[in-house]
Design goal:
This protein is an alpha/beta fold and about 350 residues long. It has 17 helices and eight strands. An eight-stranded parallel beta barrel has the order 1-2-3-4-5-6-7-8, surrounded by six helices. Helix 14 (about 270-285) packs antiparallel against helix 17.
Length: about 350
């Protein structure tokens, strides 16, 4: 696969800097943003930056590389998020991943799960900014794509006004091309990953202050952003905005991203075309030994709030799990939705 660059060979962060462009992204989410999810999202937004789930460096080195790193060429621009704390292993994993042509390599410095804590990476790395800097330097030495960091504002009893600038100073000195900040602390003990996404209070203002301190650095914001209006408001202060659960649980929100953030012409969503593309994609996946449910599970929340969406969810949640289920289940689900709100449904 080839990396999509364009604009005189500039990567996406160079284009953001040179042309003053903002970036809208869908956050990396474990168990959610797999290749099938990203393919769906790409059918709805041409320009949103998509992220893989976190892939641990050891898994790339020792595991099924093609399954972990493979993706459809249609997914560009797409970023690979890596997990790890050993500069040598991250460098080795990145050399392996380089042939896949990702548009960005992102280091996870924010996940608080027990899994990453046992491996001393993810949010644990907030406590050792010198290690993060070493990892970034090692990754930059072998990567043709921009290397970025996604972090929290601090962990546990850290003072964010001290911990976040220290981390940023070190990773920027090591050559990081951009920093995405989840505007909450993470508590390594006492809170589950889900609770860490909801209980620690959001502090958007500290992210804004980091942008004021480093005006020439690309700084993106993440955490608790629910709507495109909220996303647009944040972009008055920072360079990028990242939606997570809001984009996953109702992917139709992505339909207006290209117009609002990338200057594309406003057009009415063609849900018939989306249905046909997802049916064709699913047919290919099944022919390669996959199951309908691998794709359909990411589509369940697509039309939340529309008439017929409950029946749509029922069809995808139940029929897609049946033995031998095929693309016709997607057609039946779409046929249940009243897109016009006046009884006019997509054609069968």
């Amino acid at each position: 696969m080839t990396r999509e660059i364009g604009d005189n060979g500039l990567n996406l962060y160079e284009k953001a800097r040179v042309y003053g462009r903002k970036i809208f992204a869908v956050a990396p989410m474990i168990d959610w943003t797999d290749r099938h999810c990203r393919y769906l999202h790409r059918q709805i937004s041409r320009h949103a930056l998509l992220y893989t789930e976190m892939v641990v460096a050891d898994a790339i080195i020792h595991g099924p590389r093609d399954r972990l790193l493979g993706y459809d060429a249609a997914e560009h621009p797409v970023a690979l998020q890596l997990g790890g704390s050993d500069p040598a292993k991250l460098s080795q994993a990145l050399r392996i991943a380089e042939a896949h042509g990702y548009d960005e390599i992102n280091l996870n410095v924010g996940c608080p799960s027990d899994r990453v804590q046992s491996g001393t990476f993810g949010a644990c790395l907030m406590l050792t900014p010198e290690t993060v800097a070493s990892c970034v330097a090692a990754m930059k030495a072998v990567s043709k794509a921009p290397v970025t960091v996604k972090c929290r504002i601090g962990v546990d009893d850290q003072e964010p006004e001290e911990a976040l600038p220290e981390l940023m100073t070190r990773v920027l000195d090591a050559g990081a091309d951009a920093i995405w900040i989840h505007a909450r602390k993470a508590w390594l003990k006492g809170l589950s990953p889900k609770e860490n996404r909801e209980i620690p209070p959001l502090d958007y203002e500290i992210v804004y202050r980091m942008k004021q301190r480093w005006p020439d650095v690309f700084i993106g914001i993440n955490g608790g952003i629910q709507t495109l209006d909220q996303a647009e408001a944040h972009l008055a202060h920072v360079d990028g905005v990242m939606l997570g659960r809001a984009a996953y649980q109702n992917a139709a929100i992505l339909a207006d991203v290209d117009h609002r953030f990338y200057g594309a012409q406003a057009v009415e969503s063609d849900w018939n075309a989306l249905r046909d593309r997802m049916m064709a994609y699913t047919e290919r996946h099944i022919a390669e030994g996959g199951r309908l449910q691998h794709v359909a599970r990411h589509m369940v929340g697509l039309f939340s709030g529309l008439p017929g969406s409950r029946r749509y969810r029922q069809i995808l949640s139940t029929d897609a799990n049946k033995p031998g289920a095929g693309p016709e289940v997607i057609a039946a689900a779409f046929a249940a939705v009243d897109f016009a709100g006046e009884g006019e449904r997509v054609s069968a």
